[in-house]
Amino acid sequence: MHRHNTPRRTQVALALLVAAAFVGGPAAAKDVTDADILNDAKTPGDVVSFGLGTQGQRFSQLAAVNTGTVKNLVPAWSMSFGGEKQRGQESQPVIHDGKMFVTASYSRLFAIDAKTGKKLWKYEHRLPDGIMPCCDVINRGAALYGNLVIFGTLDAQLVALNKDTGKVVWKEKVDDYAAGYSITAAPIIAKGKLITGVSGGEFGIVGRIDARDPLTGKLVWTRPTVEGHMGYVVDKDGNKKENGISGTANATWSGDLWKTGGAATWNGATYDPETNLIFAGTGNPAPWNSHLRPGDNLFSSSTVAIDADTGKIVWHYQNTPHDGWDFDGVNEFVSFDFKDPKTGKVVKAGGKADRNGFFFVNDRTNGKLLNAFPFVNKITWAKSIDLKTGRPVYDDENRPGDPTAGDGKKGKTVFSAPSFLGGKNQQQIAYNPQTGLFYVPANEWGMDIWNEPVAYKKGAAYLGAGFTIKPLHEDYIGVMRAVDPVSGKVVWENKNYAPLWGGALTTAGGLTFYGTPEGYLKAVDAKTGKELWSFQTGTGIVAPPVTWEQDGEQMIAVTTGWGGAVPLWGGDVAKRVNYLEQGGSVWVFKLHKS
């Protein structure tokens, strides 16, 4: 009897489950697909990638919140990260299927009900005592893929969790934290691969971009960003195969310093599906003392374009050859198209506001330099960028002096602008295809800098330089600027007393959003820069806002919490803004319904 009744009961149970689904029963959680990620910039109901699309434009087609309605924007909810773990909060939230995922300081990850702000679960990574983050215990965000949410940690691991339960699905060690490696950037997904970089250039690590299977964490390929190091591909059985040296050994590095050459990829990457290229910005060469390492020191302080399938470098452009000021080049390379005013042809380009103070426009198919112009007022290290050669016209008197030319203990001090914290640092730019403008959170500051002798020691700071950062003006440091990448002109600017350290968001509603260390989230007219709305969140904002549509309403979100590199490395600037309070929250806004 039981043999006949059990199938019948199963059929009835299945029928009831199906019926429940049609009458509002619990729906199955949706996975994040490759198509979702490729279409992220065009689908308003979610934000599934860092940059609101893999190209990193940070542009939303939503327009319900616009120049006319933004005055009615009010808080919908706020959630605190809690506890004593404050410090800088640089994370961009990702939102999918009614849930928000946001990372926080000290390698934490929160899942939140995107409608109510209720915490669904929290993951706290257990960090060892010996971590060595150079520039605060921050994290910039997570990646979504399938039913996983994936992020990097300060002890150089990648962790993938079930996005519905918070349970760890896989965990992979990326490198040795005791040697200075860490991860602070948000991963991205490119063509079904998890793309990550590494931090630690101040400790003599070797920068690289890794591609992994996002469902397992297993390595697919790895591409070093210091010339002379071997790349590898890895088969499904875990066998490594050599995939060519990056560049040519010793071509731009003399001696053995390339073995600890820096060029960290600490700000992550962008991906352009049209060219199938991953664009990674690379950090400073190590050590800072440039007299120890003659040559251009590829591929440091550069944009490197990597084939997503093969892991090979297709092209590179070096923004600061033979960097002697810690200018890095990690700033994001944002794909965009423009019409050439001379030929009328559409150009596939990329824009980058570099820490060295120049805005660069390159052909994203081959790296050719198309335009380069200052986006800050004071640049002392170079007089210009030669558009024919693509190289800077150095001011040789502004390179910090060689210690061996004097007493051997300290080289000539120079005053240099911008400071090593950059004309733009980690704070993300945005591009609006409707205005044709980039929105750049810039800073005007300088530094006294000098070189010192140094030798590499595993896990120790590897600078060979000293510095003091100084403001250039009494009334402002930060400046939000709208720049035209074709003409090279600054269209408008808004000054800010404290340095700007959070990213930008721009929308089809004619708005640009950004936050300030003083705690204000602001909305300005994207065409004119006129401030139309602001809200005081109670702590500094050093993260980029995002927007999405939920239940027919446009939502705006931003992570808040003062910190990052400025209070740690800022010298006189840090003293000037030491009144700012720490914190840690997510704020969400929507239009008030009258």
TrEMBL record:
Domain (Pyrrolo-quinoline quinone repeat) ranges: 50-370, 477-556
Q: Which residues form the signal peptide?
A: 1-29
Q: Which InterPro entries does the entry mention? A: ADHI (IPR034119), PQQ_b-propeller_rpt (IPR018391), PQQ_MeOH/EtOH_DH (IPR017512), PQQ_rpt_dom (IPR002372), Quinoprotein_ADH-like_sf (IPR011047)
Instruction: State the UniProt keywords alphabetically.
Output: Calcium, Disulfide bond, Metal-binding, Oxidoreductase, PQQ, Signal
Write down the required cofactor(s).
pyrroloquinoline quinone; Ca(2+)
Annotated positions binding pyrroloquinoline quinone: 90, 140, 184
Question: Which GO MF terms are attached to this record?
Answer: calcium ion binding; oxidoreductase activity, acting on CH-OH group of donors; pyrroloquinoline quinone binding
Query: Keyword Oxidoreductase, does the record have it?
Result: yes
Keyword DNA damage found: no
Q: Quick one: which residues bind Ca(2+)?
A: 202, 284, 326
**What GO terms fall under cellular component here?**
membrane
Q: How is the cofactor bound?
A: Binds 1 PQQ group per subunit.
Query: Which cysteine residues pair off into disulfide bonds?
Result: 134-135
- Location of the active site: 326
Origin: domain of life: Bacteria
Q: Which family does it belong to?
A: Belongs to the bacterial PQQ dehydrogenase family.
For this protein, the record's NCBIfam families field holds:
PQQ_enz_alc_DH (TIGR03075)
Q: What is this protein's record name?
A: PQQ-dependent methanol/ethanol family dehydrogenase
Report the source organism. Answer: Azospira restricta
